[in-house]
């Protein structure tokens, strides 16, 4: 393996509660903007209950594309542009929480010292990623940043990895992806990557990471999995 791509929230850092606030605000704004007859049913369908997001719901673990489809279905019309633009505006104005999961920064530095290239592939915007890197003084830990902007490809669409494959001479089979949702794991499947490692430090439960090759508690155990995998 040559490259290791890490999801950010829930994988590198503790899951940022500001994401939940954004999700709730997006749903509330949607229900205020469009004439939805049964707002309570729409909340349940989207996965917002008592101002909190259900982890395995569309809002909890779906991609932005999934959310767009769900909003379109509930509205009975195409609200794609509104959803994407409003979501991006909320993301751009959020105040992030950037707390490393214990031991993960040291693990990444150790992997770099072993010769691995390290990247981030996240649903956060580039602004959010740069805030994370600046807040944690960790810009030197990563060789590549892949963020998700309005109308851009996102996980699990394999096109999200074009910045890697367009600029580096690496085969998909030499790439590992590490993340806390099955969208991360599906990215491995769709892009035909070499390995998918699921972590339980974020929002998904073990049985939800059905496309993972390995499941570990936190990214601290990635070196152990790489060693185990190479010995097979």
Automatic annotation (TrEMBL):
UniProtKB keywords: Hydrolase
InterPro entries xref list: HAD-like_hydrolase_sf (IPR050155), HAD-like_sf (IPR036412), HAD-SF_hydro_IA (IPR006439), HAD_2 (IPR041492), HAD_sf (IPR023214), PGP-like_dom2 (IPR023198)
Keyword Lipid metabolism included in the entry's annotation: no
GO biological process: one example: DNA repair
Pfam families hit by this protein: HAD_2
GO molecular function, one term: inorganic diphosphate phosphatase activity
GO cellular component: cytosol
Protein name listed in UniProt: HAD family hydrolase
């Amino acid at each position: 393996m040559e490259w290791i791509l890490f999801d950010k929230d829930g994988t590198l850092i503790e899951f940022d509660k500001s994401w939940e606030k954004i999700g709730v605000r997006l749903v509330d704004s949607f229900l205020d903007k469009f004439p939805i007859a049964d707002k309570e049913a729409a909340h349940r369908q989207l996965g917002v209950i008592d101002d909190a997001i259900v982890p395995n719901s569309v809002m909890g673990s779906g991609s932005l594309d999934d959310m767009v489809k769900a909003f379109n279905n509930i509205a009975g019309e195409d609200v794609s542009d509104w959803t994407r633009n409003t979501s991006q505006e909320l993301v751009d104005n959020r105040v992030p929480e950037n707390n490393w999961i214990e031991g993960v920064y040291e693990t990444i530095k150790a992997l770099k010292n072993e010769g691995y290239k390290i990247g981030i592939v996240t649903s956060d915007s580039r602004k959010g990623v740069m805030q994370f890197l600046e807040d944690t003084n960790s810009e030197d830990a990563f060789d590549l940043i892949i963020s998700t902007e309005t109308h851009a490809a996102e996980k699990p669409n394999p096109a999200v990895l074009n910045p890697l494959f367009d600029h580096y001479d690496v085969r998909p089979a030499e790439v590992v992806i590490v993340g806390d949702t099955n969208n991360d794991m599906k990215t491995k499947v769709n892009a035909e990557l070499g390995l998918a490692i699921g972590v339980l430090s974020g929002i998904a439960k073990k049985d939800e990471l059905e496309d993972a090759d390995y499941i570990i508690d936190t990214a601290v155990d990635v070196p152990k999995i790489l060693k185990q995998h190479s010995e097979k």
